[in-house]
Amino acid sequence: MGSWQPKRLSSMLRSIPVACEILSVEGAVFALWGKPSSMDMDRVVAEVTRVANASGHPIVYVARIPPSAPAPEGDARAHMNALLPVFVQNCSSYHAVLEGGGFVSAVKRAVLAGLFQFGMRNGMFFVHKSQAEVLEKVSGDQRAAVQQLLSLAGSKGLLTAEAPEQPASEK
Asked: For residues 28 and 62, is the Cβ–Cβ distance under 8 A?
């Protein structure tokens, strides 16, 4: 069967271009999205599951989607829908920060909210126009973890960064 070599696998994974940056702290996971791919979604789900298991309770997930990030297409959208039960199982709340002002951004937020409400428990899924709004909707016992997560994301420039570039193979 051969031996599994985590160091080799880890170095291989670091060289794969991704369109999603992921950060986590105990109790919360943050992702900065570019063009969603099934591989990136699998990475996020793996981290959400890992952090929830390590925390011993459902966690808060925060997805930041800059105005330049395209919507998922075809297979990626279907894959995202298939992964919703994992988020429902592992998250106490799911916060999508869909940035941008004006009519188009408002419509995008409304459409996103409508799509996700069908797959989530009532009061679990929230769409915001800024990360500042996230803390208003997080329960008191999870607020410290989300504040720590957003502070970490800010220190790494992920609260103001443009969407990560999509892999060259997908351009």
From this structure: yes
Alpha helices in 2-139 (DSSP H): 6-14, 38-55, 74-90, 102-117, 132-137
Tens digit of pLDDT at every position of the chain (171 positions): 333 334 444 444 444 456 789 999 999 999 998 888 888 899 999 999 999 999 999 999 999 988 887 777 788 878 888 888 898 899 999 898 987 777 666 666 666 666 566 555 566 788 888 888 999 999 889 999 999 999 999 999 999 988 887 554 444
Q: Are 104 and 68 in contact (CB under 8 A)?
A: no
Instruction: Count Cα neighbours of 103 within 13 Å in the Cβ-side half-sphere.
Output: 0
Name the pairing type of β-strands 91-98 and 20-25.
unpaired
**Amino acid letter for position 105:** S
Strand order from edge to edge, sheet including 125-128: 20-25, 28-33, 59-65, 91-98, 125-128
Q: Which helix (H) or strand (E) holds 126?
A: strand 125-128
CA distance 79 to 83: 6
Of the chain, the end-to-end C-alpha distance in Å amounts to: 37
The model's pTM is 0.80
